Every structure is written in C-alpha cells, then in structure tokens.
Amino acid sequence: MKQSFFDLTYDDLKALLIEKGFSPFGATQMFNWVYKKWVHDPNEWSNVSKAAKEFFIENYDFSLLKIVWSGLSKDGTRKFLVKMQDGQTVETVAIPARDRLTLCVSSQVGCAVGCTFCHTATQGLKRHLKPSEVVLQYLTVQKFLNDNTSGDKLTNIVYMGQGEPLHNYENMKKATEIFLCQQGLGLGQRRITLSTSGMVPAIEKLAIDFPTVNIAISLHSARNDVRTALMPINKVYDLERLFGAIKKIPLKAHRRITYEYLLIDGMNDQMEDVVALAELLNSKESKINLIPFNEYPGSEYKRPSEEKIMWFLDHMIKRGFTCTIRTTKGSDILAACGQLKSEFDKVNVWDNNSSRPVILPNISRSVRQNLQT
Ligand code: SF4
C-alpha cells in the first residue's frame, strides 16, 4: 500500500525532496498544486520536473476518502461516514452557523476514554487516524461540496468528532501543521479548535510544541465526583491536575479557553453545579458552551427541560461569564457522535451473511434509504 501524500507536512516534503536529490523548492509548487489548485494528478503539475513527478506517481497515493454515506439535515448540517484504505470508517460533520461552515473531524477510529454519555465510547478504540486521514476528511468533504452545492466552503475545523485528539498527539500535530501551512490550505489559527477530555500530560505538551490553535476543554462538571461518573479519565486526571495543566497554556491577548458543558437532567444542572463552576473558572479567561444532552436510543441520560437550560444559562451570565447554548444540529440524521458509525457497522455485520443488506428496524429512515440504494 502506497503512503498517502497527505501525510507529508511541508517540512517533511522538503526533506524528502532533498533526500531524493530533487530541488526543495518543489515543495512550494507541489503544495500549491495539491491544496490551492486541487490538482491531485502529478502528471498535470506543469512546473515540476519529470523525474520528481515520476517519483511521486510511483510512491505516493493521492486518493481522497470514500464517502460511504452522507445525509443532509433540515438545518443544513451534513453528516458523512467516510471509509479509509483499510476499510475502517469514521464520521465527519459539516455544520453551518452564521457566516461559518465548520467541519467537525474525527481523530481516532473509536475512542478509549470511555465517557459514559458518549456513543463513540461504546465502540472502544480501534486505532489512531494518520495525519492524512484527518486532512482528507477536510479535502473529501470540500470536494463533495464543490461538486454538490453552489459554492459552499468550509471555513473552520473543530477536533470534536470521534476520538480524543490528544491521545493521537503526534498525528494531530502534523495534521494541524498541514491545515495551517501557508503554502497549502493556509487556514488561520483562530479557525481551528482542538477539544480535549483532559489528557493532562498532553495538555502540558501543548504549550511547548503544538501549533497555536483555539483550545476547548470538555469539562461537563466542576465537581470531581460527578465528573468522574461522566468521564472516567477524571479518576486519573482530576480537576486539580487538569487545571494545573490548563494554567500552563499561554493565552494570547483576548483569547480564552472554551469549556464545553454537557447539561444532563438531574446530573450536573443543579445550583451546587452552578456554584462549583463559577468558583472553578475565571470569567475573564473562559467561555462556557452549554450543550443540552442529545438523547440517543439506549442512552442512560436525559436532556433537561428548556426552562432548566435557560435557568442554568441565566445563573452563569449573572456571575459574569460569557456563556452560550450550543443548539443541537442535525438531530434528524443520527446526530450523536458515533451513532451513525454504530448503525452502519450493525448493517455491515448482517450484510456479510446475506446477499442483500438486512436493515435493522431501529435505523433512521434517512440511513435506510441510503443503504438500500
Ligand atoms: S466524548 Fe470524546 S473523549 Fe469521550 S468517549 Fe466520546 S469521543 Fe472519546
């Protein structure tokens, strides 16, 4: 199997060109062709030497990922299940909001963190994604949008899909370098957000050697006992250790860390939770993003009432916090993280034993229709 060209950062490519006896200036030309002009066939790179083109044709793969399923929600959210060379699949979701179109990318196949509210956690960790498989989620979806919409363009990326990005630190670092590279996609630092469940050693490394991007922390409770019940990682890296590491992240002027707070009925939406959250966070350096729990079949938690959600929001705002509610997007197309992949995998298991797909009754109609065609 050839290595994907999209695994190479600009510096990797330059080093490779030098090692193979080609001009290092070719790196700028190649990144331009591939990322700016969308020309993925080296035969068409007019300003690159014949020998270099032959080398890349023979040794590198330029394919995008295969989209095995896509769905468009009533609110404009597009969800994709994409397949990689080894047949594994991950979800990636394009979410429109105001003047942005944000791609929520996955970092792993499955996840080892085991958050009790998360559908992906039920799949366990299968493997880390390579840098190319992260970059290709972006390129594959943008190509789909080029071909199927009147000019929709991805503007932002969040590492909030399946997987814990900091558990796949080196590969996510490379993917981030590729996204930011001025000779290629040239995305701005403020357009990328890395979200973590709180892997303390990796957070401590962020300040030292990860490109500067926005940081979001999946907090979900400011009380250790509640957070441990929701996120087993809190047993190892409790709030004291987590915030010790967060303090080491250098914040540039006017930048804040976003804290994601999943609101779950009766679990973390009481007055003692409001008080603990207000005591834990610094209102000048934090933004709170409240996410009302999105129930999925079999989930043990419930979404709070609208009144309770507004009550929680109101209390945080009164305490001086910038606090917003993230509205649920794409709820008509299996919106819970990992739900689409799980449903698809169930069908595949059945499919192996039959010449026609056996469609399970609890799969949504939109998925059924796509699988049957
Ligand atoms: S919420 Fe994120 S970190 Fe937690 S299990 Fe799910 S994918 Fe992993």
**CATH topology category name of the largest domain:** TIM Barrel
How many domains is the backbone divided into? Answer: 2
The helix count comes to: 13
Task: Please trace the helix and strand order, writing H or E for each element.
Answer: EHHHEEEEEEEHEHEHEHHHEHEHEHH
Share of residues in helices: 25-40%
Q: Helix/strand/pairing class, anyone?
A: alpha/beta
Ligands present: iron/sulfur cluster
Radius of gyration (CA) equals 22 Å
Question: Spans with pLDDT under 50 lasting ≥5 residues?
Answer: 347-373
Instruction: Examine the secondary-structure arrangement and name the CATH architecture of the largest domain.
Output: Alpha-Beta Barrel
* Strand coverage percent: 15-25%
Shape: globular
Total strands: 14
CATH class of the largest domain: Alpha Beta
At the fourth CATH level, what is the homologous superfamily of the largest domain? Aldolase class I
What would you say this structure looks like, in words?
This protein folds into two domains: 3-61, DNA polymerase, domain 1; 66-340, Alpha-Beta Barrel (TIM Barrel). It has 373 residues and is an alpha/beta fold. The chain has 13 helices and 14 strands. It has helices at residues 10-19, 26-36, 50-59, 131-148, 169-180, 200-209, 224-230, 233-236, 239-246, 271-280, 306-318, 339-351, 365-372; strands spanning 3-4, 60-61, 66-72, 78-83, 89-97, 100-104, 108-110, 125-128, 156-159, 192-196, 214-218, 257-263, 286-292, 322-325. It has a ten-stranded mixed β-sheet with strand order 3-4-5-6-9-10-11-12-13-14. A two-stranded parallel ribbon has the order 1-2. It has a two-stranded antiparallel sheet with strand order 7-8. Bound molecules: iron/sulfur cluster. The site of iron/sulfur cluster (SF4) has 12 residues, from loops. Iron/sulfur cluster binds at residues 111, 113-115, 118, 120-121, 162-164, 197, 337.
